[in-house]
Every structure is written in structure tokens, then in C-alpha cells.
Amino acid sequence: DIYNSYMKSELALPVITKSVYGFIYSMFWVFVPIFLVEQGFNGFEIGLFIGLANLMAIITVLPAGIANDRVHSKRMILYALIISMVYYLGLLTVTNSVILAGAFICGGLGRNLFNVSIDSLAYRVIDKKRSPIQLGKYLGYVVLIEVFGFMLGGNIIESFGFDNTITAIIVLLFFAIFVSFSVFFLCFRFIL
Q1: Per-residue pLDDT averaged across 70-86, rounded?
Q2: Distance CA 173, CA 61 (A)
Q3: What is the pTM of this model?
């Protein structure tokens, strides 16, 4: 009964969207160094790539928050999904270190912009009287789904290989962009 009432609330779409994105991201992120070793990159390059992604995420926290105050979060979510797709396309196709570094910068930017934007959207629809409970449920569902992504990611990569897994992630991101266009623009224009 709690699940049904929760999923009928305005918070359902942000929860589902962040959970699916978190699942996709966590399914592969932990295995990126192994993938890059298989592609022939050395430890320094791998550390640099991951460091650039994290540095970009840190640098863009404040600008992403300001952008969400000025431009609607649903539009920022769409931009984040497109930028994230550039990251995965870069992983799939690029073997040049400089260009791959750019893809990782896109990955950090896309991940952070998505998180800031979806959280901004969720905070707008959270009932202010029940906000600690709703926020706890929101974060709980998201983390639970991300845990499943970590657990399932290794099995998927083992069964289908890195290239097929990245291709599946790109297809899922295309689907997420389509859903963003349709669901967010149809549903949230009435809520916000």
C-alpha cells in the first residue's frame, strides 16, 4: 500500500528517472578501469580520465544549480542525458587519449548535471510538511536500484562483453531521452 501511494505521487517520475539513470551508470562505472586496460591504456591514463570526470563533476556543481534555477530542470535533464551519451559513445569508439579525456569530461559533466537537475526537480515536488519522510524514500529507492546496477553490471559484462554492454547503455540513454521528451514535457508542465 505504501508503494502504490508513493508511486502515484508527483515524486514518482523523479524517483523512476533517477533510479534508471543510476542503474545504468552504476552498472558500468565500476568496470571502466578494466575496460580501459583491455583497450591498451596504462594506469596513469586511466587515473587521469577518471580524475577528469570527477573534477568536472565538482567544478560544475554551482553552475548546474544556478542553471536549474534559471532554466527548467526537465530541460537540464535532457541536456545531461545527451552529454552522458557523448561519454558512452566516446568509450565505445575512441582510442586516442586526448579525445577520450574529452569524453570523460563529458561523463563527469553529464552525471553531475543530471543529479543536480533531477534533485532540483524532486525538491520542487516534495511536500514541505512531509519532506524528511519523502526525501528519505526518494533517496532510499534510488540507492537500492543503483545497488542492483552494480550487482548486475558484472554479470552483463561477463555474458555479453564490454562493447555490447556499452551499446546497450547507449540504447537505454536514447530511450531515456525519448521518455524525457514525452513524459516530463507532458506531465510536469501541469505540476510545476
Answers
A1: 86
A2: 22
A3: 0.79
